[in-house]
Design brief:
single chain, alpha+beta, three-stranded mixed beta sheet, 1 helix, about 15% helix, about 20% strand, disordered N terminus
Length: about 80
């Protein structure tokens, strides 16, 4: 896996095709809604971004998680409509 400045793990979500997809970056201390490599967001925000990006998607969506501990009040659920 390519190194993205910090140690990131990769989660591929809803793999659909080989075309270029969207990348989101999350950090345990992330903030804002950029979800970029230089300005990672929280895991909760990245989940919201993925949910908003799945409608009509034609390529993979990847969430890169910076090393650390992530705490969620509820499990991540993949709901396809």
């Amino acid at each position: 896996m390519k190194n993205f400045g910090s140690t990131y793990s990769c989660i591929a979500i809803l793999c659909m095709s080989n075309a270029f997809g969207q990348n989101f970056y999350a950090s345990p201390n992330g903030s804002g809604d950029s979800c970029s490599e230089g300005s990672p967001c929280s895991l909760a925000t990245s989940i919201e971004k993925v949910a908003g990006a799945t409608s009509g998607m034609t390529a993979d969506i990847t969430v890169f998680l910076e090393g650390g501990y992530y705490f969620l009040e509820n499990p991540i659920v993949n709901v396809r409509t």
